[in-house]
Write a structure and sequence with these properties.
Elements lengths: L2 E6 L4 H4 L10 E5 L2 E6 L5 H21 L3 H8 L3 E4 L2 E4 L5 H10 L3 H18 L9 H17 L3
Antiparallel strand pairs: 1-3, 2-3, 4-5
Length: 154
């Protein structure tokens, strides 16, 4: 008999896929806001849940220090580091940052502001409706945010 148990991870949907990389004894898959653990070895279930929870907490702590899930992913992937509560990109810069800064001509400070705005927009319009956001949609939303920022004279 095989049992499936579900664990709520509490991460942004864009970061939930990082939980797929957590090594576990039982098979698992990320299903939106939940992680499904297909239990084949019940003795390993508590250890698997602990591993997943530990990784989720690490991801949440990084996410709370940066402006968006994508920049958190950059930190987790080693493309950026947090120094004195500031995000510092290592070279080469992330695809998203490079694309937006070259396409929109943003300074580092403008990029940060635009990403805060885009993150709020995505939270309200996509994550609230349980939809994932593609990189193309992020770029489009960020471009709209940059245009709104320019119209405000900032």
């Amino acid at each position: 008999m095989k049992i499936t148990t579900f664990v709520r991870h509490g991460l942004d949907l864009e970061l939930a896929d990082l939980l797929e990389k957590v090594p576990t004894e039982n098979d698992k898959e990320v299903c939106g806001e939940l992680v499904a653990i297909h239990v084949s070895d019940p003795d390993e279930l508590p250890a698997d849940i602990r591993r997943i929870a530990k990784k989720a907490e690490l991801i949440k702590s990084i996410r709370n220090k940066v402006c968006s899930p994508w920049t958190a992913k950059d930190v987790i992937d080693g493309k950026a580091v947090i120094v004195d509560d500031k995000l510092v990109y290592l070279e080469p810069r992330s695809y998203l940052r490079t694309m937006l800064q070259s396409m929109l001509g943003l300074s580092d400070e403008e990029f940060k502001t635009v990403m805060y705005m885009a993150t709020d927009d995505i939270r309200a319009n996509n994550i609230a409706h349980n939809k994932k956001t593609t990189i193309e949609e992020v770029i489009k939303i960020a471009a709209q945010c940059a245009e709104a920022l320019r119209r405000c004279g900032r």
